[in-house]
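Next comes a concrete protein, fold included:
___
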Amino acid sequence: MQGYPARVLAQVEKRNASEPLFLQAVHEVLASLEPVLAEHPEIEDTAILERLTEPERQIIFRVAWQNDTGDVQVNRGYRLGFSSALGPYKGGLRFHPSVNLDTIKFLAFEQIFKNSLTGLSIGGGKGGADFDPKGRSDCEIMRFCQAFMSELFRYVGFQTDVPAGDIGVGAREIGYLFGQYKKLTNRFEPGVLTGKEPGLGGSLGRKEATGFGTVYFADEMLRAHGEGFEGKTCVVSGSGNVALYCIRKLHDLGAKVVACSDSTGIAYDPNGIEFDVLKSVKEVERLRISEYVERRRSAEFKVGESIWQIPCDLAFPCATQNELDRDDARSLIANKCRLVAEGANMPSTPEAITLFQEAGLLFGPAKAANAGGVAVSALEMRQNASQEQWTFRDVDEKLKAIMGNIFQSCAGVANRFNRPDDYAFGANVAGFLRVAQAVHAYGVV
């Protein structure tokens, strides 16, 4: 990296020295922009990179609540609005003990370009707390969500900032958050949160959207090379919402998923993961992946191994950031894996991505392949605004069309700059150009 992007990166590194995830995300985008900057000198003249790498607002607050034994607990909450150039801040809330400002900032930065790629009118934001919902009762989760929203409600609104779910925040948590927002504001304003239950104004197809969208993007990559899912063996990391519905859609399209995981280990099922059993264990009963193995005679529980050592044709990292490293990439390449599509946010390390590209694997970056969830969240906002509820089929068709358009944008940019099949480059540049155009049009604000 040289010239203007290198100078901006140096400034960002100095200002955010203790935030490695954020710096990794910024480096990936800036490293893709040199050919674009040669065509658009106004980007440097108006300091657009400096503006896009500095959040518009960062909110950190205390969340005090009581557990079931009456003890007072204190957590830290975050909501970060990175860019509203294309619309209100849009991005999920993550409840997980690993959450800190670095995590939220990297996720919000990624969200800018992911949301841009959808072609919808949504800006980039993210939020959450270092609260761990695992092992907590429903009443404890309710009290935490109410305490969290008692601070957050001041900063959100359907034309300002529209949170959604993420790791640790599903329809149950969104319901508690929305209930507290309604109580505090005395308004039934469904467009202020997405990921709601359909009875509260939520969109059918929202919980399936990220996993389905990842598979739709992978399908576009395969079809561009005359291939399909039929008969392919797949591995999907994670077993949360994204992984679960990635597995379902892969099965629907004729592939066989032989492994998934959680933080305790891997469920390996050579006969294929049974979706209904996995859904009951993870989504309904909220148990660990080992319980799936207990219910399937053909399944084996693996501990202390990497899921990426399991031979597969297609790999879908759907757990968390930087879960797939250089050694994992080497294992996938050695086992003749054909495609990697990212269902999680930035799950592959830069070293892993470089190896995939050098080996000629088809690689679907998170900015593009992971965009289905936020796309349907924006469709939920549209339904709320018009007081309509679309059918599951209507939402799914719109999602598939959006993912197809995202693929065409990435592929088109990659081809224009003579980098065919480099969908990571295409996603970075296509997402950036739309935001940069809006920032430039607004003047210095």
